[in-house]
Amino acid sequence: MAVLVLIALACGFNVSTANIQEANMARDAEGSQPTTTFEQNETFYAVVELANAPDDTTVKAVWTIIEADGEDPNQQLWEDEVTGSNADINFSLSNDQLWPVGQYKVEVYLNDELDRTLEFEVEGEAVVEAEPEPTATPTPVAEPTTTPAESEVERSTAGDSLAADSVEEPEVEYEPLPFEDEPYTHPSGAFTFALPEGFEGVSGDATSVIFADDRSSVGVLFIDAGEVLTDDEMEAFIDGFLPSFMDEISDEYEVLVQEVQPDDSIYVGTVYDAASGPGDADFFFEQRSTVIFVLFFVTTAYEEMGPTWDEIISSYKVDADAALAAVPATPPTPTSPPPPPPGPAVPAGKGLMVFNNNTDVDFVVDVIGPTNDSKVIPPKSTQQFTLDPGHYTINGHSPGGRYAINAYQFDIAAGQAFPINLN
């Protein structure tokens, strides 16, 4: 789980909308210190701003010495390639020796086509060791600084919040936090996982629990879907769950990866920005029998907490039979009785879905179809969704998973008022 790789599948013919809006050399990964001149001990950064990029877009950087002291001209140093739709990409090249003084370039390729060449230079002089005492012998001549061997060159590629590695400082190897002697088991017996020491319970009910410290939180919730979902229905469930969850903790977020695991669970990795700062949130969705389990981890220190999260994942176990026994005997299901007269006014050319939340908790409804919409419906209240005619899927849940609707489908026509009741 610690290393996630996105693989782009090449097609025989592809017309891409991707383009490079801007590319510059800089002294930092963010590009806030643009330059075309470096000192011999600096790291080179090439910062690329990408636009309209689909997920299979590739950007490659090829680093070359044009001409430098003691080096063969037009000598290629390294090349790196990234695939994805990140808007901001940086490539970097570091050296644990001094760079030879001279002219360099990095060629930037978009989808294997050369887009532009960024030239830059290294200034300075090679370091000369001074003799401890003056003698009659000739002053030694400094040897030209040589290009580092391949094993001595460090490079990194990153998008968004990922930072470039530095060879100046050793890589920090984080250890997992100490754990409680016994794993946590939910009162229902539906799930269990190793609990780090210092994590306190912040919420929980018959179908969920959350533990947290000052930087991270881990939790599990489960719901009975009433049936085994198809792949498309599971995808719709995830598409409805993520916005309602992430909107509660962040101002904006981005899904970086979504992959099916060997055990058929679905891993989703996200990054987010909030008033308290940036963070990461990971999710594992799995259905056992008719029960959907969601394991999640939210943190502002992802790299440091990575080993701890790995231990939690390894220890996590679920019991579908125990979960089914814990779910209310008559789980809420959407119903669609005939609209009561007089019906609500329907805008011309539109349909109207009227959602009645008859429960005692807030309920989040996500509508997917020709018109996409999402609303939080307070308890014992009604919300209207004005929709274009067509086929729709709705997903919904209450915080904690007490009530849920998964991939419920219906059709609506112009002038039709379509009520849905959550009881």
Mean pLDDT, to the nearest integer, reads 82
Structural class by secondary-structure content: mainly beta
Q: Indicate the CATH topology of the largest domain.
A: Protein Transport Mog1p, Chain A
The CATH class assignment of the largest domain is Alpha Beta
Strand order of the largest sheet: 12-13-14-18-17-16-15
Largest sheet: 7 strands, antiparallel
Radius of gyration: 28 Å
Q: How many beta-strand runs?
A: 26
Q: How many alpha or pi helices?
A: 3
What's the order of the H and E elements? EEEEEEEEEEEEEEHEEEEHEHEEEEEEE
Euclidean distance between termini CA atoms: 40 Å
CATH superfamily descriptor of the largest domain: Mog1/PsbP, alpha/beta/alpha sandwich
CATH architecture descriptor of the largest domain: 3-Layer(aba) Sandwich
Strand content: 35-45%
Task: Assign a percent range to the helix content.
Answer: under 10%
Instruction: Give the low-pLDDT segments.
Output: 1-15, 126-167, 329-333, 335-342
Give the overall form: globular
Q: How many distinct domains?
A: 3
How would you describe the overall organization of this protein?
By secondary structure, the chain is mainly beta. The protein has three domains: 19-159, Immunoglobulins (Immunoglobulin-like), CATH 2.60.40.10; 184-326, Mog1/PsbP, alpha/beta/alpha sandwich (Protein Transport Mog1p, Chain A, 3-Layer(aba) Sandwich); 351-422, Immunoglobulin-like (Sandwich), CATH 2.60.40. The chain contains three helices and 26 strands. The protein has helices at 231-249, 302-315, 320-326; strands at residues 19-26, 37-39, 44-51, 58-68, 75-83, 88-95, 102-110, 113-123, 153-159, 184-185, 191-193, 200-205, 208-212, 216-224, 252-260, 266-274, 277-288, 291-299, 317-318, 351-357, 363-368, 373-377, 381-387, 390-397, 404-412, 417-422. Strand 15 and strand 16 form a beta hairpin. The two termini are 40 Å apart.
